[in-house]
Amino acid sequence: MTLASGLDAGTHAGAHPLARYRSEFPIFRDKTYLNTCSLGALGERTRRRVTEFLDVWQQRGASAWYDVWWTALADLRARYARLVNAPPAAVALAPSISVAISAVAEALDYARRPRVVITSLDFPTVAYQWLAKRPRGVEVVVVESPDQVSVPVEAIARAVDERTALVATSHVYFTSGAIQDIAAVAAAAHAKGALCLIDAYQSVGQLPVDATAAGVDFLTAGGLKWLLGGPGIVFLYVRPELARRLAPQIAGWFGHKDQFAFDSRVLERHDDARRFELGTPALAAVHAQHGGLDYIEEIGIPAIRAVSAALTEDLIARARERGFRPKVAARAAERSAIVMLPAPDPAGLVRQLAAADIVADARPGHVRLSPFFYNLQDDHVSALEQLAPQTGH
Fold first, then answer.
1. Closest by alpha carbon to 360, among 139, 93, 33, 15?
2. Listed residue (16, 4, 34) closest to 339, CA to CA
3. pLDDT digits (tens, 9 = 90+) for 38-84
4. Strand order in the sheet with 234-238
5. Does residue 277 contact residue 254 with C-beta atoms inside 8 Å?
6. What is the dihedral of CA 267, 246, 85, 73, to 10 degrees?
7. What count of other Cβ atoms lies within 10 Å of the Cβ of residue 239?
8. Cβ contact 130:102 at 8 Å
């Protein structure tokens, strides 16, 4: 049987050209893993990079800062920058999206522009940052989704006015996998003099992302999901001209231009995006991310997108054959590798999948599956076989 994706359902390890990497992810020895959109699988290269960090820490202690670890930070900024077609100086490191967005939020002037526009489909981190500022007069405007899948750019544009400081939304919506046109969102914001921040946690690593061409002002993503680096390390892209102009009102010693002067009387920020950095980065996470990027760079985003898109379309087609109605974008070009299957008691179904050694996730009203380049058709076929009897399909 061959579906529209062109993948041969009768093959196994040779189902697609990237299946050769599957053996480098030990979780597949015991589990069927379909949850990259929550946490990328641990690869052997990532484990080795962390082990190397621990070995250096053991052997050299703090002396490793001056060459090995300092270089690892600079290299990571440069590698992140290449992923989104940006200069290294436009990238800052942070431990989480929440911290990265906090630095942006504390760099904006809300006196004349107190409004921030978000959408109802964004991950709550985006909303919480500005909801917390309501006592300071910040007004949060939520643009609703008409179908709970995506948000029309036109609706976002209508919500932006001359009092809007920022439009903050997602590149890929975490509860539908729908891809947003971030260039159009940026244009809508800029038309009224507002800035644009994109949460790209669910896109960078699985989709091509060009922050420069899109014209966004800020873009953030990191290791936890599709970049295979685990928790504790993210990046913040800041449009270069903006990075030189904005001054975050939260600060740490890594944002200081001459941090080793240890001068507590003067705060002189970096001239580039590093002024948005705060404290000492978690070096184990930095090294883990280098390991994850070893896979991403070696394979290339276009090849990853081709394989994951084929697997996604195959999953959607098979789910529909069984009577499911996946909540996904209408067109394949607007779908990422996140598939939402409406189901009663999603948490219970995810526990049942786990009992069958299948790792998935639950979101309100849905079981969420997310194939990646290391997955095979057999993975989502097994998941559907487990889910179908429990959901009446």
1. 33
2. 34
3. 999 999 999 999 999 999 999 999 999 999 999 999 999 999 999 99
4. 91-94, 234-238, 218-222, 195-199, 164-170, 115-119, 139-143
5. yes
6. 20
7. 22
8. no
